[in-house]
Design brief:
Shape: globular
Strand content: 5-15%
Structural class: alpha/beta
Number of strands: 9
Distance between the termini: 37 Å
Helix content: 25-40%
Length: 259
């Protein structure tokens, strides 16, 4: 009861005091039809590597090692579920100590809308707000303040215009991976109908880059694919970075973007 009262009070302060998210005049954001940012400063040859985790995080150490070897900073979006698990605590602290961006991905990894009817929420405005507040509280336990975690990746990378407005009214910028980059399919089990091997995903990514470019792109790779997926895309992150560097791209994390 006390905890729920505290969450309600914190939510009241956030809604009352935080203006809808704003950006610097020099910042150019491309948004999708639902309002999420899917490219940042698209005239610049920069890529933002993003990684989202709920309870599974088995590729986290590999990703951190590769990012260090390549001298690249990434952006990690973590749920409250992930942040509460003791087995992930040291990894999360290593991510923060490494200077990478860490932001919210919801508290309970809730689904905002059905897969069949994206335009209709199946949770209330209050449930979304409270879930985000709980996620913030878990981030704060690791010393990550709201001020330093203004970018938010919706759970399942799935959302609609209404959920984006709710989130941005709390003072956050909603982001998602750049459409067409295909790497988000890396979480799938080999048993699933739409499963694609890492090589196929890499080939499709490079084809997309040739046709559309990756200026300002947000490129998502999952640190926690299904446990029976042995062919993990994160194991090949180094060669992806090296290939894109050879094409003239540089890499930044979201805490390097001036809001």
């Amino acid at each position: 009861m006390i905890k729920n009262t505290f969450i309600a009070a914190l939510l009241f302060v956030m809604v009352a005091c935080a203006p809808k998210s704003s950006v610097a005049e020099s910042l150019v954001l491309d948004r999708d039809a639902h309002g999420a940012v899917v490219r940042i400063n698209p005239s610049e040859k920069k890529i933002f590597l993003i990684f989202s985790a709920d309870s599974l995080f088995q590729g986290g150490e590999t990703i951190l090692r590769i990012l260090k070897e390549e001298n690249v900073k990434g952006s990690f979006f973590l749920t409250g579920n992930c942040l509460r698990l003791k087995e992930h605590e040291q990894l999360i602290r290593n991510i923060i100590d490494g200077g990478h961006y860490v932001g919210g991905h919801s508290d309970g990894h809730i689904l905002y809308a059905t897969w069949e009817r994206r335009d209709s929420l199946i949770v209330t405005k209050e449930e979304i707000e409270q879930d985000i507040v709980r996620n913030i509280q878990e981030l704060e336990r690791f010393g990550v303040s709201k001020e330093n975690s203004k970018w938010f990746l919706p759970p399942y990378e799935y959302y609609n215009r209404e959920s984006v407005d709710i989130t941005e009214n709390l003072g956050y910028h909603v982001v998602n991976y750049t459409p067409g980059t295909v790497t988000p399919a890396d979480y799938m089990s080999p048993k699933e109908r739409n499963y694609k091997s890492s090589q196929v995903l890499i080939d499709m990514l490079y084809d997309f880059e040739e046709a559309n470019g990756l200026n300002g792109a947000l490129l998502l790779i999952h640190p926690g694919p299904q446990p029976d997926r042995i062919d993990c895309l994160y194991d090949r992150l180094g060669e992806i970075i090296q290939h894109l560097k050879s094409k003239g791209y540089t890499f930044e994390s979201l805490n390097q973007v001036e809001l």
